[in-house]
Design a protein that fits this description.
The protein is of the alpha+beta class. It is built from three helices and six strands, in the order E-H-E-E-H-E-H-E-E. It is globular and about 50 Å long.
Length: about 160
């Protein structure tokens, strides 16, 4: 028997104004994408912006549906948008932001488990980590060096 320790680290910025210029620009794109979210049921609007190695910025936002499980998170809309338009082009960064029309989202909103799983496959395939930045509507921004650092013991195609 053995015990193993798993640790991860993140940088926390006090707000968007403290971010390095390129990160701030990407987060502003995520905010822009958030404005087009279709979230009439949860009232929780999420925007995501990916910076690709070819300098393209690809956006996504959550898209809900009256049949609730048929909706989709912003992160997966964004990454599949990138996958469908720029297959094989590496992702350098992903910025995520969330706001709500019923409460102030003032804590960083990380990607849900299903999105982490989906995003992890892209990071594994490109053999290079991509940075993740996430925030609420206001307040702190969390920055991590890789997606997989947020998903220990993850499942991937190697098991199949
Ligand atoms: N949502 C996202 O877009 N990303 C996440 O990582 C978590 C949740 C969306 C799904 C749904 O439209 C709304 O937020 C409330 O869960």
């Amino acid at each position: 028997m053995k015990k193993i320790e798993i640790s991860t680290s993140a940088i926390v910025f006090k707000d968007i104004s403290e971010l390095p210029k390129d990160d701030k620009m990407l987060m502003e794109k995520a905010i822009e994408a958030r404005g087009n979210a279709y979230a009439p049921y949860s009232k929780f609007n999420v925007g995501a912006a990916l910076l690709l190695e070819n300098n393209e910025i690809v956006l996504g936002n959550n898209q809900e549906n009256a049949a609730y499980p048929s909706g989709m998170c912003a992160e997966r809309v964004a990454i599949w948008n990138a996958g469908s338009h720029f297959p094989g082009v590496k992702i350098l960064k992903l910025a995520i932001t969330a706001s709500s029309t019923i409460s102030k989202v003032d804590k960083p909103v990380g990607p849900c488990g299903a999105c982490r799983q989906t995003l992890s496959e892209f990071e594994i395939n490109q053999k290079q980590p991509f940075e993740l930045l996430f925030m609420g509507e206001v307040g702190e921004v969390v920055k991590t060096e890789s997606l997989l650092s947020l998903l220990p013991f993850s499942f991937d195609s190697a098991y199949l």
